[in-house]
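Example record

One chain of 344 residues, shown exactly as stored in the release files.
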Amino acid sequence: MTLAVNSENAHAPPSGGAPGRSGGSAAGMAAGISGSLIWGSAFAVPVMLGGWNPVIVTLGRYLVYGLLSAVLLILGGRDLRRALREHWRPALAFAVAGNAGYYLLLVIGIKAAGAPLADVVIGAIPVVVAVTGNALAPAGGGPPTAGRVPWRRLALPLIVITAGLTLVSVLEIAGVHAYLAVPPAEKAAGLLAAAGAVILWTWYALANARFLARPDGPSPAGWSTAVGVATGAVALIGLPVAALAGQLTVPSGAHPGPATLLAGVVFLGVVVSWAGTVLWNLTSKRLSPALAGLLVNLETVSGFGYVYAVRQQWPAAGQLTGLALVMAGVTLTILTGRSRRSSS
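Predicted structure tokens for this chain:
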């Protein structure tokens, strides 16, 4: 999953000529699509590691992310280290809201309510980010990376995407071809955890966008690395707390085994966390928060597909219809972005 984000700095294309803006927006679209497809796998890996405590999966993922980022920080030179020293407070806040806290709530939601239902709740993030980001954006014209997208252009994509998410949610909550048969109270607890993840990620997306808009902001890769170092520190602090709470106990006869767990957390830490965040930062620098947020709906669709692929099942026809509506809304979002570039 994860939201949101815009800016211009020395690493961004020039804001003067139309070709630079158009190329930057196209790069932002490509990065947003690629990052969302990568982030979708964050829903499937916990299903593959279902025998392991979600706390172990979460800490493992972010310890790997932190270790990789620490190595890159050492190799990155003085500029990157200075950026972390100067901006360690937002890096730490984003580490908690956008990474460790968000993903822990997501994994808890997956375990309690089932991956498809948790995926659908998390799928509200793009809509929340798009609407909130657009409402807070300055009105009037400007480059595609700033300013408010006219609501008339967002109305149809928002309506189509919301209809698709609602259809899938209603079918799952009503128990029609439900993925996970558990008591309603347990599903409700999972939904609350997923809703908490939505709140955290929405704040992170918009705050990260404002940070990246600063002229002294680091590059997308540099900021992913800085936040990764802070995330690793949070994970290290969480280790003794989790151990005292009995959350690090290895289950007897755990299936899958430790080798699969290691492979899973390395994939989550390197590909999903570091690479996915780099792509998201690129998207945030090139597109308005509204368009960037709506693109993240691809995370919902791909996550849903990956989960059912792992289970070797097909979603019900109604759920496929809902996902098709979400994809239609994403397509409309891409067309809206092209129209905005051509008119700027």
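Notes: The chain has a mean pLDDT of 79.
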